[in-house]
Write a structure and sequence with these properties.
By secondary structure, the chain is an alpha/beta fold. Helices cover 36% and strands 20% of the residues. The protein has helices spanning 7-31, 54-69, 83-91, 102-110, 159-170, 189-194, 210-218, 230-234, 279-291, 293-297, 321-330, and strands at residues 42-47, 73-78, 97-101, 119-135, 150-152, 180-182, 200-205, 221-224, 244-248, 262-274.
Length: 332
């Protein structure tokens, strides 16, 4: 015959079982990972640049770090012609994030480009340095000496070409009339110079640029100073206000064997997105960019310049809501 528990005993047994269930639930909550369902997930497209350029290398390094920090994301790298192309892809909804130089961003806004009002920034990254590369024995000593020569100016829709056109104008030259403009990217210009099919080429990128460094290893080249163009450049107004005087350190390219720093101009790069992007995603990506500065910088030396104190200065774009949330969370 079954033994009937007193009513009070049954109640205590039920209470003990409920308390045990609560304790077990708390233990599981403590032991199991949480927040996975809330972390950003889904497809993300990152527009980079031309093969062998710094933008593409940066994108590859960032994709690796995002895979570790945000495993729910499916990051696709999208090659492009450079900053102007990247800005357009973002504004038209064909990319989620991209690197773009401030002059290209401002030019798109000033031209009233479609979706320009939706552009937002997550961080100021590093500066691109304009580099005018010539064979070591070239007679070219300034941009003015490029008249009637074959000059690589970057692909159409590239940031290089945007700056090169302004530099040539500052030197009193018209890119469409006074030089033979060869519209190729950094993936082709070094080989063309080496083959004698170019007399010089412009490049805008972080230091050192792999393609330029590789060229210097087996072909004698040097950089031409651009410092004498700062005044005439700024007098043009418009996007040239984003160009600052700078110098390429003498040891930036060891195989060039240049004794002194080369005066040039530099322009800041931004990590750009749009207001379509969810704040949680923008916050998480910004965190990965800032906190992995040294890791990315091991391959993209320019990325070591990313600094929490300057990252928020993203003129001409306002910070994305999610990026601003990240900076507030780490503010001392």
């Amino acid at each position: 015959m079954a033994v009937r528990l007193p009513r009070l005993g049954r109640r205590r047994a039920l209470q003990s079982a409920a308390a045990g269930a609560v304790a077990l639930a708390l233990l599981l909550w403590w032991l199991l990972p949480i927040g996975d369902d809330e972390s950003p997930h889904g497809p993300v497209t990152f527009a980079t640049g031309v093969p062998t350029g710094v933008y593409e290398t940066y994108g590859k390094m960032l994709r690796r770090d995002l895979a570790r920090d945000l495993p729910g994301l499916d990051v696709t790298l999208q090659r492009s012609k450079g900053s102007p192309d990247n800005v357009r892809r973002l504004a038209e909804g064909r990319a989620t994030f991209a690197i773009a130089a401030t002059d290209a961003v401002e030019a798109y806004r000033k031209q009233g480009g479609k979706g320009a009002e939706r552009l937002r920034a997550c961080a100021r990254l590093y500066d691109d340095y304009m580099q005018l590369v010539v064979p070591r024995g070239s007679r070219v000593r300034s941009t003015r000496d490029l008249k009637n020569l074959r000059v690589g100016v970057g692909e159409d829709d590239s940031g290089v070409q945007l700056i090169a056109r302004s530099l040539l104008k500052a030197a009193g030259l018209d890119m469409d009339k006074n030089v033979t403009a060869v519209r190729e990217g950094i993936d082709r210009m070094p080989a063309l110079l080496k083959e004698g099919k170019l007399d010089a080429f412009f490049w805008s990128g972080g230091l050192p640029t792999t393609a330029v460094r590789t060229l210097a290893e087996d072909f004698p080249i040097r950089l031409v100073q651009l410092g004498d163009l700062i005044g005439p450049l700024h007098s043009q107004g418009g996007v040239t206000r984003y160009y600052r005087a700078a110098a390429v350190p003498a040891d930036a390219y060891a195989d060039m064997r240049q004794k002194d720093a080369i005066k040039t101009i530099a322009v800041p790069n931004l990590l750009v997105t749009t207001d379509r992007v969810d704040p949680a995603l923008a916050e998480a990506v910004t965190r990965t960019v800032i906190e992995n500065r040294d890791r990315i910088g091991s391959k993209v030396h320019a990325a070591q310049k990313v600094d929490l104190r300057t990252a928020i200065f993203t003129d001409p774009l306002e910070l994305h809501e999610g990026a601003a949330r990240y900076y507030r969370s780490v503010k001392p």
